[in-house]
Amino acid sequence: MARKLITAVILLFLNTLPSAGEVKFNTDSIIGALNHVVDRRDTYFTTHAWRIDSVKRVLAAIPADQLPMRTQLNHEIFNMYRSFQSDSARAVVERELALAEQTGDPELIVRARGDYIFSYLSAGAFPDALEIARNTSLDNVSDQAKGDFYFICQRLYSDISVAQCDNFNDKYARASHAYADSVIAVLPKDNYKAMYCMSFKTLDALKLQEKIDLFTGLMNRDDIDNNEKAMIASILGDYYNERSDEDGAVYYKALSGKLDIESAKRETTSLRFLANLMFQQGNYNLAHRYINVALEDAEFFNAPHRKAEIATVLPLIESHRFDSVNTERRALWWALGGVVLMLVVLIVGIIFYIRVARKLSASNRLIAQRSAELQEANESLEAANRNVQESNLELQNTLQKLSESVKIKDEYLGYSFYAHSEYIKKIEGLYKLVSRKLKTHQYDDLAMTLRESDLRKEKEVMLREFDTIFLRLFPTFIERYKSLFPAGETEDPAAQDNNGERQLSPEMRIFALIRLGINEISKIATFLNYSINTVNTYKTRAKNRSILPNDKFEEAIMEIRSIS
Q1: Residues sharing a CB contact under 8 Å with residue 553, sequence separation 6 or more, in sequence order
Q2: CA atoms within 13 A on the CB side of 137
Q3: pLDDT per position as a tens digit, 193-249
Q4: What is this structure's pTM?
Q5: Which tens digits make up the pLDDT trace of 419-465?
Q6: Domain 26-33+206-312 belongs to what architecture?
Q7: Which residues, listed in sequence order, are joined to residue 496 by a DSSP beta bridge?
Q8: Where are the alpha helices (DSSP H) in 440-454?
Q9: Are the C-beta atoms of 116 and 81 separated by less than 8 Å?
Q10: Domain layout of the chain by residue ranges
């Protein structure tokens, strides 16, 4: 009976909508609008941060005993952080839940726990979100509070079912549908969340065009904000892409990205999807721009699963953009050759003209006239030659900058390794000098030498700089390395230095060098100042602990990819 009622409501809603089959999309206009807000995205983010600070100042002025008001303000601050910065959102929701529990108000507690679920969901921490969802009581709360909580849980289980790649995805999909039923049961049928869940429940039974019509109608409702419109626009982009309508997919993904930026939202997927569409269309410059904006947002929000999604697309886009730059450079060389050729033709033409003029001169007056004309032509030629020389210099400078950029990228890491290895050799020379002074009893000189040197500190600095450079190139190396061992058998060897940066363990540094292509044991030992036996011991111990066969361990190390 419930399913029939839902279907009837959906069909009635569809009958009130105009068909979207004939819609023509102005993709140039929406791309232009998106580029405009991308140029101004720092302004949107700065304004959003200022608004957060304003609410925080209001919160600071509220007395500590005003628990409901402080809970409400923390809830508002969380909503401003929820899609902006995950770490800050987590800190705020912890305070919100603590205050809500102090009030003893079931409504405030359920709302706070729903916010907690959303914070874990956005960060990809599904097990933590499930734990809260399963242990939240909805006794003595209103239908609205229940509906809001069920809506969050529906989203949670839906995202898990999509992310799962095993036999449990059907289980989570069924749970998502069950929560959708719960939303429909407690909220009014014209409520946006209820309508969304109705559509979610019946989408499988609808044709693609009917799905598009349904979500187009949902987007035009007056009771949804820009965040919700951005989500619906992204869904419409997926449907148009499924229908192989590139214009529709580009339009709605661009619209979703524009709304996300205007809402200061940094937990997004639309720009990553749009970058892939631009890449498929051969627009590598826009693809490069959008994928880098998406990466900046993922890093700022601190969403590892989003960064992993971007890492699958970024190398392809960057590779084709590099090829495009090379093509443009070759075109510049051809253009320069054409200019030179035209100049030669011009000079030959002028010389031929002068010869003919001289041969046709009938008098000294005509000869003088032609001489004057020749002088003017020479001046024009000199001016043209200067212009060509200036253009040639500009082209050479441009090509030099392009070549320098490529060279820096290719040689930076190798140069860094060489410089640090040479420095170690110098330090070893210092120790040899100390030894000679000891043998010759030059104790005063020795004391002076030792005061001027700190080998251990310099070695630590060198290793810390190596760790920093390597982890910038391979930010997931530590996590991928740990995944090669049984769970619980290895603890995180990465430590925090004084600046809060991650460091590699001695064992990890050996395999980091192997990942960079340094396979000779003697070179590894020299760089790390280990004995060859020590390096072999570290390698053997790691392979023996690994879940992989010994002969497959280093292959797995080499498969760890850089996203830069």
Answers
A1: 484, 542, 543, 546
A2: 6
A3: 888 888 777 776 677 888 788 888 888 887 788 888 888 888 888 889 988 898 998
A4: 0.52
A5: 556 666 766 777 787 788 888 877 777 777 766 666 677 777 778 88
A6: Alpha Horseshoe (1.25)
A7: 502
A8: 443-451
A9: no
A10: 26-33+206-312, 319-449, 454-558
